[in-house]
Amino acid sequence: MDTLWAPWRMVYIDRVNEDSAEASCVFCRAAAPGGADSDLVVHRVGRVVSLLNRFPYNPGHLLVAPVSHGGDLGALDPGEFQEVAGELQLATRVLKSELGCDGFNGGWNQDRIAGAGIASHLHFHLVPRWSGDTNFMPVLADVKVIPEHLEATRAKLLAAFSRQPPG
Ligand SMILES: [Zn+2]
């Protein structure tokens, strides 16, 4: 079996932002409407924000985060966690219908020792998978950046999320 999902490699990907301050946190900025990095956001609802990973493993690689700045899943408000879980469910439905993926990898890295690059702000990775997608993945998948595809994917997902009935 080919393995695409290698969470420890997120260290490299997340290294774009080592600063733990809220003001420079990619998730806090994305959660603020019109803020920096909001160009990656595909859905904001309640206390949750979903955005595309700028350095995706696969098209549609989503990051789902609570809006509140904090890195500990155990410390997350239970209601907020429920909202995050609901968003993960919704996101799998949207990604499946819009991108036609065959499966998913998902999870989170908590704290530096586990490979979290942005350890200060909890976020879940949701990576769409297609049959045979490891066949054409470059060895250095981390640097596979295709901005046009990111924008096209974002437009598609933005529209799809906006069509979803409110939870
Ligand atoms: Zn933050």
Which SSEs are present, and which pair or pack?
Blueprint: H1 10-14, H2 26-31, E1 41-45, E2 48-52, E3 62-66, H3 78-99, E4 103-107, E5 124-129, H4 147-163
Antiparallel strand pairs: 1-2, 2-3, 3-5, 4-5
The chain binds zinc ion (ZN).
Residues 22, 25, 27-28, 69, 121 line the site of zinc ion.
Can you walk through the features of this model?
The structure is a single chain. With 167 residues, the chain is α+β, with helices and mostly antiparallel strands. It has a single domain, classed as 2-Layer Sandwich (HIT family, subunit A), CATH 3.30.428.10. Helix content is 30%, strand content 16%. The protein has four helices and five strands. It has a five-stranded antiparallel β-sheet. A hairpin with a 2-residue loop joins strand 1 and strand 2. Helix 3 crosses helix 4. About 11% of the residues have low confidence. The site of zinc ion has 6 residues, from helix 2.
What features would you highlight for this structure?
alpha+beta; globular; binds zinc ion
Poorly predicted ranges: 8-19, 139-145
Q: What is the percent of helical residues?
A: 25-40%
Strand/helix succession: HHEEEHEEH
Q: Sketch the major β-sheet.
A: 5 strands, antiparallel
Using the 3D structure, state the CATH architecture: 2-Layer Sandwich
